[in-house]
Write a structure and sequence with these properties.
Largest sheet: none
Number of domains: 1
Order of helices and strands: HHHHHH
Number of helices: 6
Helix content: 55-70%
Distance between the termini: 26 Å
Shape: globular
Structural class: mainly alpha
Length: 90
């Protein structure tokens, strides 16, 4: 794990999130980012922020650019059809 990343600092979470199914979703996310020109991190956060099944979002930012990214995802979301495509991944 790269030093300082969440999985370096809390390695127990690796067993929860590292799975073939989740890696397949990451591959789809990266492909969608290339297709749309929207960075993957922005697509992922935007999906969470605009998902009606999510009641609240905790943004664990480590720097101001991560906070700015979260605010921009909320203010300027991707088109609804992109999030609808992402809904089908699970």
């Amino acid at each position: 794990m790269p030093k300082g990343t969440r999985f370096d600092l809390i390695p127990g979470h690796k067993d929860i999130y590292f799975s073939e199914a989740n890696f397949a979703i990451v591959d789809k996310l990266q492909a969608l980012a290339v297709e749309t020109g929207i960075p993957a991190v922005r697509l992922a956060m935007g999906w969470v922020l605009h998902n009606s099944k999510v009641d609240c979002v905790l943004v664990g930012a480590r720097n101001s650019s991560q906070i700015e990214n979260a605010i921009n995802c909320w203010r300027d979301p991707a088109p609804d059809e992109i999030y609808a495509r992402m809904d089908e991944w699970r």
